[in-house]
Predict the structure.
Amino acid sequence: MAKATPTKRPEPVLEIKGLSVTLPEGADREFAIQDISFTVGSGEIVCVVGESGSGKSVTAHTVMGLIPRKDLKPVAGEAVLNGEDLLVKSEAELRKLRGERMAMIFQEPMTALNPVMKVGDQIGEMLEIHTGMSGSERDARILEVMTDVNLPEPKKLFDTYPHQLSGGQRQRIMIAMALALEPGLLIADEPTTALDVTTQAQILVLIKDIQVRHGTGVLFITHDFGVVAEIADHVVVMQHGLVVEQGPAAQILGKPSHPYTQMLISSVPSLIPPDRPEPEVKETALQVHNLDKTYGDGGFFKKGRQVKAAQGVELVIHRGETLGVVGESGSGKSTVARCIVRLIDPTGGEIMISGQNIAGLAEKALRPYRRDVQIVFQDPYRSLNPRRTVGQSIVEGPMNFGLSHSDAVDRARELMRVVGLSPDALERFPHQFSGGQRQRICIARALAMEPKVLIADEAVSALDVSVQAQVLELLDDVRKRFDLAMLFITHDLRVAAQICDRIMVMQNGIVVEHGLTAQVYANPGHSYTEALLSAAPGRHTEFAKLA
């Protein structure tokens, strides 16, 4: 059989040649990126993947001229945009190139947009700086690019502020700003990480559409291999500042050659639930009946507006099983979790723990039951007190409930072993650990209270795919070891498929579907569940697995 002729790549918009950037003295390695080379062609999407610290964002910021030169210094190589080396440009020259010839979409639009400036004016500012357009011409162009990124009713949105828009709409505004001057190179740094699966799917379709219609070269940075499978033409894999492998997307995803790439791709959770025996019905650990939570605003001179964040929620979790709660932002997932933990007060309904309805208990009466329900939050960087050692954070809860200091320390040391960390690390501070290690410490802190129910609220969404796989394995292990009931909240349907015995789907504060995970995924009974599953990126891709 004749060997297939490789597809010729398009003319490059960006050429990175032997680029090296040094880190400050005392860092864990000499180079942030070292001798890296790859190209981005016209009308091509190149995805750069790798774990945190691999050098992905440093590469992007170096191209844009946004790295702090005092700390990170390019010492070798070139970054060539349409024949011009960006590394030798002055700040004034780079400022002119940004927007006109290259543009960047950042990960978190809420921090990238000016909160006190209307979004139409923010797009217009780009046009005012870089063009000689009149005011009416600018307004027309703003409405044109807002329409181009599929924003509803651009004329109305023109005069809104960022906080008045949804996350997906804010990200579309960022894309509109980036495309206002039709640059040849678009750099997208994790632009879909914080978005729901359905919004993420819309943004990916939009970027793909823009790339085709405008012939834009896109450098897309991500750690989500589902996203890579959905949009990439070419993939660059980075580890510790080095490019370890690159090639066409189908080749990298289907037949990776480097052990690091193989490890990353094999860590991608499958959208097909594994064969899990139906959980044995044990003691009921948590029962929620007709739970409501309504938020209201208003005052003396303003009519109140009510938002029903949770309506008539029913759930039961037995010891030793995991119930997953999935849905988009605003669906009520985290509201339900916070009501159960009593971080917020429910408006109505019952929350039964150990035969006691804790929904309406005052703080003093509630205190004995707090140890029974523990929560692990999404962001391990904000979950621990930076001024306390991790040992102090772990022993604090048990000691508050009467355990002696020596017994609490013994328990902490044992739990550090359970979560795969050295007991000797109890004397260290949170900043001395990686994100994955911090999340393990948060799990140890929750387990120190010997709870009956463990709530994981997006506990792995901020982690790299390989670290995510390790933490998921740990959560499943501690559930079995301590016979815990686990409420697992996530918007990642791949993660939910792998760890949950049962799935509960929420939309607009209402449970629209509930059942065994394998059954719900195979035959969704509600159109919303079907829409969520069909929006999962890379759902039709078979990722290579380690033998």
Observations:
- The chain is about 35% helix and 25% strand.
